[in-house]
Each structure stands twice: as C-alpha cells, then as structure tokens.
Amino acid sequence: MSAGSRGDVAPFTGLGHGLVRAGHEVTLVTHGCFADLVSGSGVGFHALPVDPRAELESPRGQRLHRSTTGAGKIIRLVGLTRALVGRLTEGMIAAARSSDVLLLSGSVGPLGYVVAEGLGLPSMGVHLQPLHPTREFAPPVGGVRSWGPTVNRAAGQAVNLAAERVFAETVRALRNRLGLPPLGPLAAHRARERRAWPVHHGFSPLVVRRPRDWRRGLEVSGYWWPYDGEDARLPSSLWDFLDAGPAPVFVGLGSATVPDPERLSAEVVRALRAAGLRGVIQRGWGELRATGDDMFTVGEVPHSVLFPRMAAVVHHAGAGTTAAGLRAGVPAVPVPVQFDEGFWARRLVALGVSPGALSPRGLRAERLAPALLRATTDPSYRRRARDLAERLRAEDGVAPVAEALERLGG
Fold first, then answer.
1. Inter-residue contact 319 to 226 (CB < 8 Å)
2. Which of 14, 183, 399, 409 is 20 to 30 A away from residue 222, measured at CA?
3. Domains of the chain: residue spans and CATH
4. pLDDT per position as a tens digit, 167-226
5. What is the phi/psi pair of residue 66, to 5°?
C-alpha cells in the first residue's frame, strides 16, 4: 500500500514483481491513475481514489509549489494530506480484507497499521526514505543539513509525531470502527516502536548506511528497481535523436512542480547550449519543454533504458530518480525542489558522482552551465558513478523482504 506521486509508487512495482517471482501473490494498492505501472509484472492492482497530480494542480496544490521555504511547503503539504487521507480508508480496508500481510509505505504507515491491527493481519513497513530518528543526520523530509547528533534525533522524533498527527482524526475514527481502544498519536507511535515493528528500506546501504543508533527491526535492504517490462523501450523518434549526435544530458523534475515552467525551461536550454550539449527534456508534472534540433522533449519513458545513454542527468533528486541515475552510472546535477530531495542531493555530492546541487528557485543558465561542464568533462564523476553502479547492480533488495515475509507467515 502506498500513496503520493509516481516516485512513491514505482519502486513497489519492482518489489512486487520480485515477490511474485519468489512465489507470493501480490497486489499493489495505490491511486487508480498508476494502474498501468503494474502491466505485465504479475502484480495485481487495487485502486484507491485521489489523483495526486490533479490535487497538485488544484488551488490548494498551487499554494504548495508557490511556497518559498521548506517549512512553508511542509505546512501546506500537511494540510493537503490531512484533507485527503480520509478518502483512502475504504479502499485500504477493502484490499486488506483479501490479504494475508500488509506491506506499508511511509506515506500510509500510521493508517495502514491500524487497518492491519483491526483486521488481525501482520504488517511490515516498506519505506523509500529513512524516516526513523537518528543522530547521524537530520530528518530527510526537512531537506536540511545536519544540526548535530542531539538536535538531529530530537528533530526526527518531532517529525514522526507530526506525521502521526496528520492521520490522527482519520485514525481515531477508524480505531473506533474496527473495535480498537482509543489511542492518541504519541501513544500509537510508541506502541509500534515497543513492538519493534519491522521496516525494510528500499535504498542501498552503499548510498545511505544503516544508522548505528537505529533499533532492531529497521533494515536497509537495497533498491527495489521499478518494473519496466521485459521489453522496455524508448520511442523510435527518441532513438533517432540519440543516434544523431553525442550523448545528451537528461533534464527532468519528475512529479515536482515549479511556479514558472516556461522561464525555467528557457534557462535550461540556454545552459545546455552554452555548455555545447544536447538535451533530452522530460515534461514531468512541471511541464518543462524545449524545441530545436539539439533538444528533444519526452513524456514518461523508462529511465532504466534512457539514463545509460546520457552524458549526465539533471533532476530533482527524488528518491526514485536519484536511484535510477546511480543505477545507470552517470554523473548528476541535482536540483532539489522540496522535502527529502535535499537529502538525496547531498548524498550524490558526498558519493562523488555530482559536482554540487543547485537551487531551482531563480535558477539561471550562468549557474547551470558550469555545473554541466564539470559533470560532463571531469572524468572522475563518471568513473565514480560507474564504480558505484556496478556495486549496486550486484545487490538484491527484494530478497531481505521475501525472507521477512516468511518470518511473518506471508
């Protein structure tokens, strides 16, 4: 079960496909607009209401991307989530009634846990970000640098409690409906921690090492690569563009939105041309676009096929796109827009596969062009990216989850 944008869903198609191959019957429970993602994977699909893109394009969602600070974005996201979460309940209960085990993403964890408890089902977290408090780094959702061990851990606890409060009203009604005793947000969180509720994380320990102060039951499994199909391919017109010249640079912001996509698109094109580079521009939810013989605009395409053909990738540093770039072994120029993207951008720089992150607000070609030149002409970035990609491809992120399912009786 998951909710959110495409990046909050796609990795679970790969996890689900791997579990199907291990002999499990798997259903992905998420927004109906993502049904096509499981096509051909052997994974079933149960649709939840709410179209996340439509919500972002609503007046309430527009206020979110106009926020000028990380705190402002978080406050507006909390309000948006609180208004929508109740609409997910019926679909989650219906899917759970025909299930033996629930695997819950971080975006639905508090609600899904109550569904599992009320129906007497075992459950497990499957998180794409490190959400539990630690002294080793600040909570990723805040997108800020480390504040030091003590404040990092306290801030992580505060963020977790705030997340519980987002679900509090819906959880209160659901507990009553399922015959469970009342339990406030703090008590609910403490109860899960006392039981050492198991959580597996879908990123590599080569990218984020398991924090030494995490409790038992919190594991870093490895990446769950999205299922792109056995014959994933690019449009023939894109292949023609790739074959017509030197490797281009990919630019895309995924499901992130920006206040002025026309201005940002123009700056991106100006930067690419100043650096003497061709570009593949992905429209995404931000509606970026470019024209000209040296530019190619695309919609949704499999990053697993496209990225290895790129000279570098410029992206919003969402967890999934970050992983795809690392898997392809190409240098990155992250442009983190919001939430945990700053965390992943800093990891790319620390791993030595990126010359540095840039802010999307007021981004100008004069800043982007030098970063593109460094990423594409300094061989050290590509060398480190290729070395890391080779090690990542040797990992199996699905196997630890499959083993944990056996222990749960799934």
1. no
2. 409
3. 6-223+396-408 (3.40.50.2000), 236-393 (3.40.50.2000)
4. 888 899 999 999 999 988 888 888 899 999 999 999 999 999 999 999 999 999 999 999
5. -85, -5
With a CB cutoff of 8 Å and minimum separation 6, the contacts of 36 are none
- Rounded distance between C-alpha atoms, residue 25 and residue 175, angstroms: 28
**Tell me, what amino acid is at 339?**
F
Cβ atoms of 38 and 11 within 8 Å: the answer is no
By CB neighbour count within 10 A (0-12 exposed, 13-18 middle, 19+ buried), where does 43 fall? Answer: buried
Q: What's the rounded Cα separation, in Å, for the pair 141 and 152?
A: 12
Q: Which residue has the tokens 């013989």?
A: 293
Nearest alpha-carbon partner for 282 in 301, 269, 263, 260: 301
**CA 115/CA 34 separation, integer angstroms:** 22
**Which tokens hold the place of 299?**
């919609």
In angstroms, the CA 172 to CA 24 distance is 32
CA pair distance 363, 259, nearest whole angstrom: 12
Residue with the two structure tokens 């959880």: 171
Question: Which amino acid makes up residue 3?
Answer: A
- In the predicted model, is pLDDT for residue 81 greater than 80? no
Q: Tokens 């009604």 appear where?
A: 173
φ/ψ bin of 317: left (φ > 0), alpha (ψ from -120 to 50), beta (otherwise) = left
